[in-house]
Specification:
The chain is mainly α and 98 residues long. It has one domain. Helix content is 76%, strand content 0%. The protein is built from three helices and no strands. Helix 1 runs antiparallel to helix 2, helix 1 crosses helix 3 and helix 2 packs antiparallel against helix 3. The chain is flat. The model has no long low-confidence stretch (mean pLDDT 88). Keywords: Membrane, Transmembrane, Transmembrane helix. This is ATP synthase subunit I. It holds the Pfam family AtpR.
């Protein structure tokens, strides 16, 4: 396994993760305004999953180690987006119990 190719695969997995979870976030935000929420959920889910699986398939077609590195990038994107989109709690909003 070439180190250069391995380092190139990590950002590809990261980009797939950013795409997947950003589209998921947009889908969830659009649900209250949607006239057909079931179609939105199913259509978005199939599209996101299809593109992500195709990306992983193309990455893993070379070596299985590349798939693991890409999955690491995918999970890294997930962790970053969770931290970014998590609601911030202010100290004044906290309830103190005695």
């Amino acid at each position: 396994m070439n180190i250069f190719h391995g380092l190139l695969v990590l950002p590809l997995g990261f980009a797939l993760g950013i795409f997947y979870f950003s589209c998921l976030w947009l889908t969830v935000k659009r649900l209250p305004r949607s006239q057909h929420p079931i179609l939105l959920i199913i259509g978005s889910g199939v599209a996101r999953l299809g593109i992500a699986l195709l990306g992983f398939y193309l990455i893993a077609a070379q070596q299985w180690q590349f798939l693991l590195i890409a999955l690491l990038g995918f999970l890294l994107a997930r962790s970053l987006l969770i931290a970014r989109w998590r609601p911030q709690t202010r100290l004044t909003d906290m309830v103190w119990e005695d």
